[in-house]
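In response to the reviewer comment on reproducibility (Comment 2.3), we provide here a single inverse folding case reported in full, input and output, so that an independent group could reproduce the run without further information from us. The structure tokens appear first.
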């Protein structure tokens, strides 16, 4: 049991950047799945594809518009998140992860999330008493969800970059894949790889513009111990609007047939929370010399 616990911890990122629902529910289940498939030839990318299938199926179930299928959709999204967690764990334990695999994992998240919102739109908003209002809330909640995920992704990577004293993941990978994208332009075929890299580049460029990334020189001069002390608590608070927390909220609302709570909650609580965290983060950054 101790060996399994050590392997489980080694398959995680730093605890400070992990979402609470991942730690207590999804990742433990994913770890059990990883232990089952570890002796086989199943790859992390194959687990990612299975996760996407569950996500798409969940979105279709939501789109059917019945309370029974909302429950089934919620269960399918639980399975999606378990498999979505398992691919990274398997890659870390087998040490066979690839950059393309990480991009595929990110694209898979967008596919599953888009399917969920389309399902909610057609299955709940479109069949409500006021479809115009709830479609607007669905679109608004989707935008809020995307912004929250981008912000968490940026601050999580920055936290790990500085505390672990590693090269900026966002900047280094963006440059690397920009070069790969240019190379692929002169290569026939490989349409899927070109599409995946294209999606990743658009996402990364938008993320960097939103968060004004590009201050790696400043970040390298920040004392990592001071940074850790100042950011440990807020980093944990950022995780409460992470994709897993959002998805769990959505799943619970699906199980009780109350997507209205999810949509209204995202717009009226999730957005102000993200803005508040951004303002507090900026204040902390100025205190330690990362802003201004």
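Designed residues, in position order:
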């Amino acid at each position: 049991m101790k060996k399994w616990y050590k392997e489980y911890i080694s398959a995680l990122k730093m605890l400070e950047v992990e979402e609470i629902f991942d730690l207590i529910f999804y990742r433990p289940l994913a770890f059990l799945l990883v232990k089952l498939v570890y002796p086989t030839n199943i790859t992390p990318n194959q687990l990612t594809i299975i996760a996407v299938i569950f996500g798409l199926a969940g979105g279709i179930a939501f789109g059917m518009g019945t309370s029974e299928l909302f429950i089934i959709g919620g269960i399918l999204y639980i399975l999606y998140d378990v498999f979505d967690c398992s691919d990274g764990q398997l890659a870390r334990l087998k040490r066979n992860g690839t950059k393309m695999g990480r991009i595929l994992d990110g694209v898979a998240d967008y596919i599953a999330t888009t399917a969920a919102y389309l399902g909610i739109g057609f299955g709940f908003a479109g069949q409500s008493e006021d479809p115009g209002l709830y479609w607007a809330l669905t679109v608004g909640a989707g935008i809020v969800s995307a912004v929250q995920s981008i912000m968490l992704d940026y601050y999580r990577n920055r936290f790990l970059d500085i505390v672990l004293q590693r090269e900026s993941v966002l900047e280094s990978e963006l440059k690397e894949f920009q070069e790969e994208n240019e190379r692929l332009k002169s290569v026939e075929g490989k349409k899927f790889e070109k599409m995946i890299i294209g999606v990743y580049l658009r996402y990364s460029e938008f993320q960097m513009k939103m968060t004004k990334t590009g201050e790696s020189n400043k970040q390298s001069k920040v004392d990592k111990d001071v940074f850790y002390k100042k950011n440990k608590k807020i980093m944990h608070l950022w995780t409460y609007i992470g994709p897993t927390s959002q998805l769990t909220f959505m799943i619970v609302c699906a199980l009780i047939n109350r997507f209205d709570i999810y949509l209204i909650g995202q717009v009226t609580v999730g957005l102000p929370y993200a803005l508040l965290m951004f303002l507090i983060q900026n204040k902390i950054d100025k205190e330690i010399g990362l802003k201004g």
